[in-house]
Each structure stands twice: as structure tokens, then as C-alpha cells.
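FORM 7B: Structural annotation worksheet

SECTION A. Query
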Amino acid sequence: MLLDPENTLFVRGVTPVLLLAEAQVHDALPLLAAPDGVVPRCEGWSIAPRHTMCVVDGPGDQGLVVPSFAAPVVGGADDGGASSDTADWCVDAEQAGGAIVLSVDQLPDVFDWSALLSSGTVRGGFMPTLA
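SECTION B. Predicted structure
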């Protein structure tokens, strides 16, 4: 399944985040439960972060491909407004050993971690990188 890059948001950080909107895999992902703020591992799922295409691979036939080179990227190590691209996000993911992948109904105008964790409708979790 190919996901339109306009329905994604790559968020840089020590543990990077990939937000997916209107993703075909939404119902296959586990409902996110992180009462203490710690995002659990998304069992059976993995991610292959690449600058041109990012692959989210799930159990069975579940999964999707994001044309990452065309997707928006926000944040950064200093978050001082320096521009970032998916190559930077991919480095973050490789250093973290994976990324948090979250599926939402629609992308938020502003990335608000606490709002996402408390929404009760977000699905996903931490996905390790493919070996």
C-alpha cells in the first residue's frame, strides 16, 4: 500500500516519530496505551527508514510505503528552525534503533505529544528498524 506523503509527518528527535493519516493499516495497528508516557513496542511491526521510501512492515500482508523524500519533516536536534529533511529523520531512526509510528484520523496542525497520547484514538507504537 502506498500512502500519500501529504498524509504523513516525520518528526525528528531522539526517538523520531512518523505520523500517518488515513492509513490503510490503521485498524491493524494496536490502540496506543501509554498512561505513563512510555510508548510500547508495536509487536510484529518494523520500519525501514530510507530517504526516498520509508517502509512500515507489519504481520502478514499488513504494511505500507511512504514516498518519504516528498513528505514534510519537522523538529530537529536543536529545534531552532533549521531545515531538516527525511535523510536527517532517517539518521535519527537508525540511531534510536527504530521510530514511533502513530496512525491518526488526520494530521494535527501542530505536533502536540500530550494530546496524541491522551486522545484515545491513536494507534501504533515503537517499531524497530529492519535488520
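SECTION C. Observations
The mean pLDDT is 90. The chain is about 15% helix and 25% strand.

SECTION D. Sign-off
Analyst initials: ____
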